[in-house]
């Protein structure tokens, strides 16, 4: 089992519990917004990530840092949830837990998640056009795009919707040609 699969397996029960708390409190939108903000803060601050995810750092210090950052900024239930993750030494899985939570929440709200890897940064018109096409393909009224820049694609993009992959990248086409030539 790969490290990412293991992290996903560990993260899923926590994400499900968090979703249940959000539903019981009728706070799905608040939780989603708060968790997205926490994720953004973690992705922007390497020092914070290193401190929180370091198993040697004392859990009391981690809780104090979380409290100073997020008190009156996020829902109290989320802050308590972060404390539980610290106590159970699962705070290093926070990003994956947030990812899983968002995935479950989008599924609950019938939002299609499309992961797009592109060789270059997409402009607003391209994102809008892709969103329209994905809505047509999936017959969904709501689509959430997760865009990732991957220069190794050389050109084009790869779209992943659930288990379906659409590869229009230059590197993908070169791989197909290579497989065809090697087969003959």
Summarize the structure.
This protein is part of the stalk that links CF(0) to CF(1). It either transmits conformational changes from CF(0) to CF(1) or is implicated in proton conduction. The chain has helices at 3-24, 28-44, 46-53, 59-70, 76-87, 94-108, 124-138, 170-183, and strands at 112-118, 143-149, 157-161, 164-167.
Polypeptide structure, described:
The chain has 184 residues and is an alpha+beta fold. It folds into two domains: 3-107, Peroxidase, domain 1; 111-183. The protein has eight helices and four strands; from the N terminus they run ααααααβαβββα. It has helices at residues 3-24, 28-44, 46-53, 59-70, 76-87, 94-108, 124-138, 170-183, and strands at residues 112-118, 143-149, 157-161, 164-167. Strands 2-1-3-4 form a four-stranded mixed sheet. Helix 4 (59-70) packs antiparallel against helix 5 (76-87). The model has no long low-confidence stretch (mean pLDDT 90).
Biggest beta sheet attributes: 4 strands, mixed
Integer average pLDDT:
90
Which structural class should the secondary elements be placed in? alpha+beta
CATH class of the largest domain: Mainly Alpha
Number of helices: 8
Radius of gyration: 19 Å
Sum up the structure in keywords.
2 domains, four-stranded mixed beta sheet, Peroxidase, domain 1, 8 helices, 184 residues, alpha+beta, single chain, 62% helix
């Amino acid at each position: 089992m790969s490290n990412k699969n293991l992290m996903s397996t560990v993260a899923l029960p926590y994400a499900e519990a968090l979703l249940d708390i959000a539903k019981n409190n009728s706070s799905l939108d608040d939780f989603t917004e708060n968790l997205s903000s926490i994720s953004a803060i973690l992705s922007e601050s390497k020092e914070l990530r290193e401190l929180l995810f370091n198993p040697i750092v004392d859990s009391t210090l981690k809780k104090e840092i979380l409290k100073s950052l997020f008190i009156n900024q996020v829902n109290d239930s989320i802050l308590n949830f972060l404390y539980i993750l610290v106590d159970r030494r699962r705070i290093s899985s926070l990003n994956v837990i947030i990812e899983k939570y968002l995935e479950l929440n989008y599924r609950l709200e019938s939002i299609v998640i499309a992961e797009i890897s592109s060789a270059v940064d997409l402009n607003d018109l391209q994102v809008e056009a892709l969103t329209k096409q994905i809505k047509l393909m999936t017959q969904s009224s709501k689509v959430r795009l997760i865009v990732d820049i991957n220069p190794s694609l050389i050109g084009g993009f790869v779209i992943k919707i659930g288990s379906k992959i659409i590869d229009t990248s230059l590197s993908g086409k070169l791989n197909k040609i290579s497989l065809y030539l090697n087969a003959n």
